[in-house]
């Protein structure tokens, strides 16, 4: 184990497909860990299981190709969402191939030439695609070395490779490029997953902070995002949505918009309205005219009281499932004290900086869509269904979007663009949503209500733990069986129906992700109440239900510690048995100089939280320091300290980027963010209605990375979010003497906590 203390300078931010059969769903949740391959030694250790991504992509050339110059092209089905995954995957491939990283190009999430790896989500890209690329690259290297051995007349194990050049003991060499030039089909074979891979002691690239390959264009104003794309003769599109969910289009005068300067096409299909123009400002102007020319019914969804969400959620119909039940036969001691608390989190927006955008081109009989989707292959299938085209006639090419934290409007706008491109066949159309489209119509992260009841012994130990969570589904992506999860598909003259709610098993979970406590408890019962009423369209946002569940569990752990008159850190240690959990907790405490006997002045607080993401992935311990102003209730975060165990760290700087991003987003959600609505419609339509963290709000973030090069890589994208929010809540409670159990912790709620104390 190596602990790496990153700099403590102020952080300066820049800006599955699920199978059609249940077996495919299980496959996606049964991952072959990256470490399995890393632990297969050249001396013939036990063969590891095949990477899950090989199941649909069984040819080696689907992963690795080498040209005559020795340049390597790597293919992945995972998408670059700003998490730096393409850099990490390039490092993995270059490491196993023994080539310079500059000689490797990587292509991602393209149905015309890349592997089908489902979705990019759940901090699983290194586990899934990393495992596949490591095994494929090791196999490619072994094939090339074997070919060189035959050519040079020496044993393969006598050869060495440096920078894509194979060296014989007598000084003769042969380049990778020479080998493939002489035998074009050399790498065209089935993937096997049984080639020996490098041991951590021999790594040259893994574990190094290689500069991210996706950043230069973003920093220099280059064409970094799909919003930046331009194609010859390209048109610009806009869409007009109903004023509220449930409203139907009664009548519309299309001619007014058609008469606008530059307008090429205006289309109506049922309740779907869209237009294309030669210039973007012309499309925006025509959209306003088209919107004014439309008459909609007064029908609307019956939305709950936004200020009484927990009670509303608990009153809706639900499908109740026991997510965990352990120790239920053991009796609860008679001398325990029962403690109970309710927590909640609101509906949250994706709040992507750039509104969703896609570019579509119907050229002949082929539709190509460029999209910032998280699942190119799932989206392709649903687009083909809605368009009535053979799936092989539709391609989806991933291009990054300006902001992606889950299932935003990327897939919806892809269908919008494709429908419009069909109307102007032969010319590409770029269609971008307006800000009000994004806030009102993109999928929203569900509100949640959490109730915890625990029994505390006189010795300060938890004797029983009962947890209930109420939430709508956090998973309604395209490609799920039984329907079409694309917005425009529901508004067409011949509409499609959404997919049924998805049941995701533990430990991955849906609204119940991380609802099962990671602490060593003698009795635990967890019930997931999947809400069957859904007046607001919901889907995935970073961590699914883990954000709310970890916030509630770790807040309650502090409340139990106070009831037991125990230091919060000591109380957690007493209920943890995993050595890695204890190590990450100790690392955070040491870095933050946590003292159990420390007495802070009124208005100043420190809060601690611990979590292991999905109970099987990365470990995190977070400490947050705050100053809280009694008169205004304003919270100033003065420092965040975090220790993280990601297993093998591929790129330390990239891991740090991801951790910081998760921390800052959690703090913003916890203090500021909430989707607002009245009983008829969503009223959050712009940034004035939805405040987020600004540069002035960003605190110093200190991170300790615990590198375990012999262990699996566990993913860095999501695990920091839940514990960061809980640590902040515990810090505010320490500063005020009261407890805010409902997010966001607005100044009004924080002031009330002072009063309650």
Automatic annotation (TrEMBL):
Keyword annotations of the record: Plasmid, Signal
Entry-linked SUPFAM superfamilies: Molybdenum cofactor-binding domain (SSF56003)
Pfam family, one: MoCoBD_1
Gene Ontology terms, MF aspect: oxidoreductase activity
Matching InterPro entries: Ald_Oxase/Xan_DH_a/b, AldOxase/xan_DH_MoCoBD1, AldOxase/xan_DH_MoCoBD2, AldOxase/xan_DH_Mopterin-bd_sf, N-heterocyclic_Hydroxylase, OxRdtase_Mopterin-bd_su_IorB, TAT_signal
Residue stretches making up the Aldehyde oxidase/xanthine dehydrogenase a/b hammerhead domain: 220-304
TM ranges: none
N-terminal signal peptide: 1-38
Domain of life from the UniProt record: Bacteria
Protein name as annotated: Aldehyde dehydrogenase
Species name: Paraburkholderia caribensis
Lineage: Bacteria, Pseudomonadati, Pseudomonadota, Betaproteobacteria, Burkholderiales
């Amino acid at each position: 184990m190596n602990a790496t203390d990153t700099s403590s300078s102020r952080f300066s931010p820049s800006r599955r497909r699920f199978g059609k059969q249940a077996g495919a769903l299980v496959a996606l949740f049964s991952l072959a860990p990256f470490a399995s391959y890393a632990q297969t030694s050249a001396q013939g250790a036990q063969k590891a299981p095949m990477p899950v991504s090989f199941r649909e992509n069984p040819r080696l050339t689907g992963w690795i190709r080498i040209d005559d110059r020795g340049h390597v092209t790597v293919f992945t089905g995972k998408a670059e969402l700003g998490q730096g995954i393409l850099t990490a995957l390039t490092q993995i491939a270059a490491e196993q191939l023994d080539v310079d990283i500059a000689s490797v190009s990587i292509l991602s999430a393209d149905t015309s030439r890349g592997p089908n790896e489902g979705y990019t989500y759940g901090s699983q890209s290194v586990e899934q695609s990393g495992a596949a690329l490591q095994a494929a690259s090791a196999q490619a290297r072994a094939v090339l070395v074997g070919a060189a051995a035959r050519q040079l007349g020496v044993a393969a194990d006598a050869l060495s490779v440096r920078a894509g050049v194979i060296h014989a003991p007598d000084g003769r060499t042969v380049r990778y490029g020479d080998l493939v030039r002489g035998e074009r089909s050399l790498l065209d074979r089935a993937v096997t997953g049984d080639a020996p891979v490098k041991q951590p002691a021999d790594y040259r690239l893994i574990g190094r902070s290689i500069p991210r390959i996706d950043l230069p264009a973003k920093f220099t104003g280059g064409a970094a995002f799909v919003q930046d794309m331009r194609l010859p003769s390209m048109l610009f599109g806009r869409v007009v949505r109903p004023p509220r969910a449930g409203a139907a289009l009664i009548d519309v005068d299309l001619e007014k918009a058609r008469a606008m300067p530059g307008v090429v096409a205006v289309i109506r299909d049922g309740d779907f309205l869209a237009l294309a123009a030669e210039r973007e400002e012309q499309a925006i102007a025509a959209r306003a005219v088209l919107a004014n020319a439309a008459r909609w019914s007064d029908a609307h969804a019956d939305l709950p009281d936004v200020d009484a969400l927990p009670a509303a959620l608990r009153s809706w119909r639900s499908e109740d499932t026991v997510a965990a039940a352990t120790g239920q036969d053991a009796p609860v001691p008679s001398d325990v004290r029962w403690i109970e608390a309710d927590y909640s989190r609101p509906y949250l927006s994706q709040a992507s900086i750039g509104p969703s955008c896609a570019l579509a081109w119907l050229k002949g009989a082929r539709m190509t869509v460029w999209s910032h989707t998280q699942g190119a292959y799932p989206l392709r299938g649903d687009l083909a269904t809605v368009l009535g085209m053979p799936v092989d006639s539709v391609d989806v090419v991933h291009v990054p979007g300006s902001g992606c934290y889950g299932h935003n409007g990327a897939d919806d706008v892809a269908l919008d663009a494709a429908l419009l491109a069909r109307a102007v066949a032969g010319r590409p159309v770029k269609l971008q949503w307006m800000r009000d489209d994004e806030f009102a119509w993109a999928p929203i992260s569900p509100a949640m209500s959490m109730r915890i009841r625990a029994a505390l012994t006189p010795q300060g130990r938890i004797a029983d733990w009962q947890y209930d969570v109420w939430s709508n589904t956090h998973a309604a992506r395209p490609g799920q069986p039984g329907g079409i999860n694309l917005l425009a598909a529901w508004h067409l003259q011949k509409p499609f129906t959404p997919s049924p709610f998805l049941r995701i098993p533990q430990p991955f979970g849906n609204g119940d992700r991380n609802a099962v406590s990671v602490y060593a408890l003698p009795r635990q019962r967890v019930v997931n109440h999947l809400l069957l009423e859904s007046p607001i369209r919901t889907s995935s946002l970073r961590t699914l239900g883990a954000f709310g569940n970890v916030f509630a569990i770790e807040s309650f752990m502090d409340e139990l510690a106070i009831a037991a008159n125990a230091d919060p850190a000591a109380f957690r240690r007493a209920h943890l048995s995993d050595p890695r959990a204890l190590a990450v907790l100790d690392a955070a405490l040491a870095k933050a100089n946590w003292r159990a006997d420390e007495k802070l002045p009124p208005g100043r607080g420190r809060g601690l939280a611990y979590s292991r993401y999905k109970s099987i992935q990365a470990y995190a311990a977070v400490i947050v320091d705050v100053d809280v102003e009694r008169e205004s209730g304003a919270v100033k975060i003065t420092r965040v300290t975090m220790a993280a165990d990601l297993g093998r760290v591929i790129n330390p700087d990239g891991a740090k980027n991801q951790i910081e991003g998760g921390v800052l987003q959690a703090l913003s959600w916890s203090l500021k963010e909430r989707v607002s609505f009245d009983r008829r419609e969503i009223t959050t339509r712009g940034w004035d209605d939805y405040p987020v963290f600004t540069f002035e709000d960003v605190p110093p973030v200190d991170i300790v990375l615990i590198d375990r090069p012999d262990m699996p890589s566990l993913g860095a994208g999501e695990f920091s979010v839940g514990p960061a929010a809980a640590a902040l809540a515990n810090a505010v409670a320490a500063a005020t003497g009261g407890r805010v159990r409902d997010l966001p912790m607005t100044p009004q709620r924080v002031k009330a906590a002072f009063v309650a104390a």
